[in-house]
Design brief:
The complex is a heterotrimer of chains A (about 500), B (about 425) and C (about 350).
Chain A lengths: L1 H15 L8 H11 L8 E7 L6 E7 L5 H14 L5 H4 L6 E3 L2 H9 L2 E6 L5 E5 L28 H11 L5 E8 L5 E8 L5 H12 L9 H8 L11 E3 L2 H9 L3 E5 L5 E4 L3 H5 L2 H5 L2 H31 L6 H11 L6 H21 L5 H18 L5 H14 L5 H21 L1 H17 L1 E2 L2 E2 L39
Antiparallel strand pairs in A: 1-2, 2-4, 3-5, 4-5, 6-7, 7-9, 8-10, 9-10, 11-12
Chain B lengths: L1 H16 L11 E11 L6 E8 L17 E8 L2 H8 L6 E3 L5 E5 H4 L3 H10 L9 E5 L3 H7 L8 H15 L7 H10 L4 E7 L30 E9 L2 E6 L1 H10 L8 E6 L7 E7 L5 E7 L4 E16 L10 H30 L7 H4 L6 H7 L1 H8 L1 E12 L9 H5 L1
Helix pairs in contact in B: 8-9
Chain C lengths: L8 H13 L6 H9 L6 H23 L4 H44 L5 H17 L2 H26 L16 H10 L5 H6 L9 H29 L2 H6 L3 H8 L9 H30 L6 H21 L3 H35 L1
Helix pairs in contact in C: 1-6, 1-9, 3-7, 3-9, 3-14, 4-5, 4-12, 4-13, 4-14, 5-12, 5-13, 6-12, 11-12, 12-13
Classes of the chains: A alpha+beta (about 500), B alpha/beta (about 425), C mainly alpha (about 350).
């Protein structure tokens, strides 16, 4: 406990102001070692070398766990020991050699996997990038799988991720700038955009927001998303999260901005509209007819998953005249022995389905098949036979559960599932009257949302010059505009 | 966001507060499929019969026995349908819901009284009884009719009425007689309304000979087997009061002459012009509406009506073996017979309506409307009492096409037998 | 052109169509049929002809004075005192009409779908939904209207196609209904069908270009007139002239009558769209009335007025239910008076404006 407090104190001394490097190298070394608690921090390394070209002692500081030791030998140790030259920049020919003038910079560089090199008597330190953070190899996209289209997904390394994007956009104006976020642990957020397309106001807005994040550490984009968004309590997402580089590239080409971080295998895309969440990259890879067909199916699924349970409650409880007599009698017959009101029945099944779903995600994969047996058998078959629920409810719940999987986006999926419960309650209140009221308000709430200044339901309302890629898309050849709602610098696709 | 939260809380609290009002669970309601209305001896009091569908009948659920009755028929006295339903609840367990009512059955006795219009009008005030409910007039008491009606195939009542009426209306043997049409014609106060005529009583006392055409009314068809209920013919209503019964054939003719009614192909027989002992069976097809041309003289308030009915026939069977296919002469004769027969039937019906009913069951007042500028002058001219009974009406059926089906010629029966 | 304003022709068109064409579903049809019998179906056209000059004058003035909405325009032309009177008259009349349409819509919901629910409760639910909808602001109302309009049109087309089998064209004869003179008189008096066109000019400056407003206004007006007439035509051909007089809500009777093949009782399907439409219509109405009020008294936040004005409108509706037994009689006479006022005031504005112009020239 005591050590922790003293560390805080020390850190405070250094971070509050920029401290220039002392000319007394021994003092400097002592300071650095103290900052990093050299005697107990095992992976902090300091080495001393004798440089051949100026016959001075050179001190190296780095974290052994995040650097490539071979590279240190080749790029630093060997040249210093053997090569001749007039200055460090001549001797160390590594491209990432940088001069450092303050202790704060030195700390930042060490933390991000660089070697900081102190030369005896100099007031300038040097840093060489030899970082080697460990990460997975590129793997298949698991959560947004497609049948037709590239299969690779982002992995937990900005370098690789940028490379995946650049592979698809060979544009000289494709810019990757870096902003740092976090007070204590400085993390890099890589902002990727095409500079002669992106709307400068949005870019400025995004950069400001990243800079204004006031917290110790933002570890990855999943957390960054929550720091960036305007309405943390809204049920609609306002930033798109995807693990597919092809998806990211498509948005960059339309003038959107992509955010990447080192420890996330996904990126953030902004600004977005409702349609962004609704679409799947495969809609564009499939031909015009096929893509639009799957859009139509998805839209029906979207409607069913939100509305079917609520509609059933409204119809059965308030508007039974609408149900055809055959069905009405069948439902009535099955309900005669069920002890609960209809709305409770619906809620039991919907909650049960959500339980299966949540358990299915959390359950260790070896036990996976169990959930299917338990869910299908016990909840479906046995509950009906025990007269706890009527069979039609099983159909309704299964349908609304199944169709919810057609909404591939994780965020929108939650939106829809929460909305479903709101609608069920609304329908239970006064049937279609309140259900439609709730739907209207829900819809108007969506229409009033903005994502980084862009209206959530654009380009339909408000309308803009755009590819009109909304519920359906046009043929790829006849898309001549970029989405006008984000006001890109160059509206026309050549 | 705060608003949304507030709204959710508000909605949830409202949900808890309002448990009832119009909310009703399905199993707490009984669905009435047919309503029967009878006149009681006392003036202004009626008895109402409700036929309720039993949801558990025929259910595939293993826990429910399939032995249950399909329907329950109950009769209660009352002054209108609404009060009767609440009285019925003294022995029916659930709330009676009239939304799925398919037919209203009225006894002939009530239909012929002045009370009919009153009781029907009060029923239609309720949004539950819709415009597409069919009106059936039965010979016996409505309660008796509903109880006697025990179909063996379509045992569930809603299906029975749906299929039975749909098919019978298509063949034109009964009219399409829904509430909507009843009110349009009765309130329009110019034409006659035809309601479905049905009965469960078979008239065995009188020996009805087997007529060659469909010249029956319900109860007269000498059939064997099947349900004892017969739907054929129509009850004629003038100003909301029943005045006569039309036979199936007359009903069909009035369907043909009325362009607001639609019907399917029908199979009819005509006597063979060459060998009068035989009949020719044809498929009567009417693709276009009849052309009704009215010449109206304002001064004399006299109209002459030219009715042209273009139709087609397809010959189905020629039991007489006369060669109608290649023999032009014979063909022409057959053609004339068919046209003539139809015209005769139509003329008879028109004469009857002009002389006895003093109004038309064909909704022809629609055509005279064009001759008037405004409604006051139209109403003053008085179609049903003045114009129609005195009009010169000329009906001509025109056979536009005669086809012979898929056979060129029947096999020569004579040769085969020889 | 204002880059911060997002409303365009589409939104204007949708809002005006929703405001006007929903009249086809309320008591307007039977109100007209009381006096004109089966000629009521083309009454909206006569009414349109009567009010069209005034609408044109008003739009002309708005164009001339640029960047002024209805109340600001009246103020610019009439000076502060007289403008307050006229504007307040507009507010008052629209407010009362709002209360009445409120009553009418809740009445329809109650009679047709919730007969056992207390009316007050229905009022409250309707009000809560509409209030929150209006609170989202003018732009959002516009966007929503625009997105929902195609749904309304499609459902209308379905409904029309379902009635096709049952309509009898001959029922529109005798063409002049209850006589030429009564028709012309009634048509002229019911110019108030189009009163919303005058009200919506309060939003003149809220569009990206004022041109969008004018375009949307004329297109919407034409479309709504056709749509209303089409609906009235269906009522006139589906019901005989004696029957239509007895129906207070012919729209719902049509809904109850139509069937899709063997599927009967499908009115709930159309009720969905009708409900959405009436929520939106009332939200637009409430917003417009509050807007007029805020402009008259220079109150900045329209949103804060929605609750009191909406609630007072609710009071008008509730109280009028107790005071006025026959909605038809009262609504009939009030809509007649309002017609005169709305035809008159643009002409007055125009005269004063041109007189002023003359004076400046001299």
């Amino acid at each position: 406990m005591f050590r922790f407090q003293s560390f805080e104190k020390k850190e405070e001394n250094f971070t509050k102001k920029d401290t220039p490097l002392s000319s007394d190298t021994n003092l400097l070394i002592k300071q650095l070692k103290e900052i990093y608690d050299h005697h107990i921090n095992k992976d902090f390394c300091s080495r001393t070398l004798f440089a051949n070209f100026n016959k001075k002692n050179v001190y190296l500081f780095y974290y052994a766990s995040i650097v490539n030791s071979d590279k240190i030998e080749q790029a630093i140790v060997q040249p210093l020991l053997e090569n001749d030259g007039s200055s460090y920049s001549n001797v160390l020919t590594n491209e990432s050699l940088k001069e450092i003038a303050t202790i704060e910079k030195a700390i930042e560089h060490i933390n991000s996997g660089k070697v900081v090199l102190l030369s005896e008597g100099d007031q300038i330190a040097y840093s060489i990038d030899v970082s080697q953070f460990q990460h997975r190899a590129i793997s298949q996209s698991e959560n947004e799988s497609v049948v037709k289209g590239p299969q690779d997904a982002f992995t937990e390394s900005t370098h690789i991720n940028v490379s995946l994007i650049r592979k698809q956009i060979r544009d000289k104006q494709l810019i990757t700038t870096v902003s740092s976020v976090g007070e204590r642990s400085k993390q890099d957020v890589t902002i990727v955009y095409i500079s002669d397309l992106v709307n400068p106001n949005i870019l400025k807005n995004v950069k400001e927001r990243i800079e204004n994040i006031d917290t110790d550490n933002v570890r990855n984009v999943e957390l960054l998303e929550q720091y960036l968004e305007e309405r943390p309590y809204s049920i609609f997402p306002s930033i798109y999260y995807t693990e597919r580089p092809d998806n990211a590239a498509a948005f960059i080409e339309d003038g959107h901005i992509i955010l990447l971080m080192d420890s996330s295998s996904a990126c953030l895309i902004l600004p977005v509209t409702f349609w962004t969440f609704f679409h799947s990259p495969e809609d564009r890879y499939s031909r015009f007819m096929f893509g639009n067909f799957s859009r139509l199916i998805r839209f029906i699924a979207f409607y069913i998953t939100m509305m079917i349970s609520a509609t059933y409650v409204a119809l059965a409880n308030f508007h039974s005249q609408m149900i055809p007599p055959d069905l009405l009698l069948a439902i009535t017959a099955s309900r005669e022995r069920v002890p609960f009101p209809l709305i409770v029945e619906v809620l039991i099944m919907e909650v049960a389905f959500e339980l299966i779903r949540e358990a299915g995600i959390r359950i260790p994969s070896a036990l996976g098949p169990t959930i299917g047996i338990v869910g299908a058998l016990i909840l479906g078959q046995a509950a009906v036979e025990a007269n706890i629920i009527s069979p039609i409810i099983v159909i309704i719940a299964a349908l609304s559960g199944l169709t919810s999987f057609a909404i591939s986006d994780v965020s929108l999926n939650y939106t829809v599932r929460i909305t479903r419960f709101l609608f069920i309650f609304a329908a239970g209140l006064m049937g279609m009257l309140t259900l439609m009221g709730a739907f209207l308000l829900w819809f108007m709430y969506a229409a009033s949302l903005k994502s980084f200044g862009m209206r959530f339901l654009s380009p339909i309302a408000p309308s803009f010059k755009s590819p009109k890629d909304t519920l359906f898309r046009k043929a790829v050849r006849s898309e001549i505009w970029r989405p006008g709602q984000i006001q890109p610098k160059d509206l026309k696709k050549k | 966001m705060k608003q949304l939260l507030q709204l959710i809380i508000l909605l949830l609290s409202l949900l808890l507060l309002t448990s009832c009002y119009d909310k009703i669970e399905l199993e707490q309601q009984s669905n009435v499929i047919a309503i029967g209305i009878d006149k009681e001896d006392e003036k202004g009091s009626f008895s109402f019969t409700f036929q309720i569908a039993n949801p558990e009948a025929g259910s595939t659920l293993s826990t429910i026995g399939s032995k249950e009755e399909e329907k329950e028929t109950i009769t209660v006295p009352g002054t209108d349908i609404l009060t009767a339903t609440s009285l019925a609840n003294s022995f029916v367990t659930k709330r009676m819901v009239l939304d799925h009512t398919k037919v209203v059955v009225v006894s002939k006795e009530l239909a012929e009284s002045n009370d009919f219009l009153r009781i029907i009008q009060s029923a239609s005030r309720k949004p539950e009884i819709r415009g597409d409910v069919q009106i059936i007039v039965c010979k016996e008491e409505a309660s008796q009719f509903l109880r006697n009606n025990q179909p063996s195939m379509e045992r569930r009542p809603h299906k029975y009425y749906q299929f039975m009426l749909q098919r019978a209306i298509q063949t034109g043997l009964i009219p399409d007689a829904d509430f909507h049409r009843f009110f349009q014609i009765t309130e329009g106060d110019a034409d006659l309304f035809l309601a479905i005529y049905a009965t469960t009583l078979e008239e065995n006392e009188k020996e009805y000979r087997i007529t060659k055409e469909h010249n029956y009314i319900a109860g007269q068809i000498p059939k064997e087997g099947g349900n004892r209920t017969q739907f054929i013919g129509s009850a004629v209503f003038k100003k909301g009061k029943m005045i006569d019964i039309l036979s199936g054939q007359e009903t069909r003719t009035s369907n043909i002459l009325d362009k607001t009614l639609h019907m399917d192909n029908i199979q009819v027989t005509y006597s063979d012009p060459i060998k009068p002992d035989y009949q020719v069976a044809v498929d009567y097809i009417q693709k276009v509406n009849p052309i009704i041309d009215i010449q109206y003289n304002k001064e004399t308030n006299h109209a002459s009506i030219d009715v042209t009915v273009p139709f087609e026939v397809r010959i189905i069977a020629i039991p007489s073996m006369v060669n109608y296919l290649s023999n032009k002469e014979h063909q022409k004769k057959l053609c004339n017979t068919i046209e003539q027969t139809n015209e005769n039937i139509a003329n008879k019906l028109i004469e009857k309506s002009q002389k006895i009913y003093k109004s038309d069951p064909f909704y022809w007042s629609l055509y005279i409307r064009k001759k008037f500028k405004d409604i006051p002058s139209f109403e003053k001219a008085n179609w049903d009492e003045e114009i129609y009974p005195n009009a010169d009406i000329n009906v001509s059926f025109q056979l536009k096409r005669m086809s012979f089906g898929k056979m060129f010629n029947d096999s020569r029966l004579n040769e085969v037998t020889e | 052109m204002n880059p911060h304003k997002l409303l365009k022709t589409g939104e204007m068109f949708a809002m005006l169509v929703i405001l006007l064409s929903l009249k086809a579903s309320d008591t307007t049809a039977s109100l007209l049929a009381q006096h004109t019998q089966n000629a009521f179906w083309y009454m909206p056209f006569i009414s349109l002809l009567v009010v069209l000059p005034s609408i044109l004058i008003l739009v002309h003035l708005l164009k001339k004075y640029e960047d002024k909405n209805l109340v600001q325009l009246i103020e610019a032309i009439m000076g502060s005192w007289a403008s307050k009177v006229i504007s307040f008259m507009i507010f008052l009349s629209s407010f009362i009409l709002m209360g009445f349409s409120y009553r009418s819509y809740v009445g329809q919901i109650k009679i047709m779908y919730f007969p056992q629910t207390p009316t007050l409760f229905l009022y409250l639910i309707f009000f809560i939904i509409v209030y929150f909808a209006a609170k989202k602001g003018w732009e959002v109302i516009g966007f929503t209207s625009k997105i929902f309009l195609p749904l309304f049109i499609v459902s209308t087309l379905i409904l029309i196609s379902l009635t096709m089998n049952d309509i009898v064209i001959e029922r529109i004869f005798p063409f002049f209904g209850s006589g030429k003179l009564p028709i012309l008189k009634e048509g002229a008096l019911k110019g108030s069908i189009f009163v919303e066109v005058f009200l919506i000019t309060i939003a003149y400056t809220s569009f990206k270009k004022t041109n969008y407003f004018r375009k949307g206004l004329f297109l919407g007006l034409a479309f709504s007139t056709v749509k209303i007439m089409l609906f009235f035509f269906i009522y006139a051909t589906l019901f005989d002239y004696n029957s239509i007089v007895m129906l207070s809500y012919p729209f719902h009777d049509v809904l109850q009558y139509v069937h899709f093949g063997a599927l009967t009782n499908i009115e709930t399907f159309f009720m969905i769209f009708w409900l959405l439409g009436s929520f939106l219509r009332y939200a637009i109405y409430l917003y417009l009335v509050s807007w007029i009020f805020s402009e008259i008294f220079h109150i900045k936040h329209i949103e804060s007025l929605l609750l009191p004005i909406g609630f007072l409108g609710l009071m008008v509706a509730v109280i009028s239910r107790n005071v006025i037994v026959s909605e038809l009689v009262f609504y009939n006479s009030i809509s007649n008076y309002i017609t005169f006022f709305y035809i008159g005031f643009p002409i007055l504005l125009w005269l004063v404006s041109s007189l002023k112009g003359e004076m400046i020239k001299q």
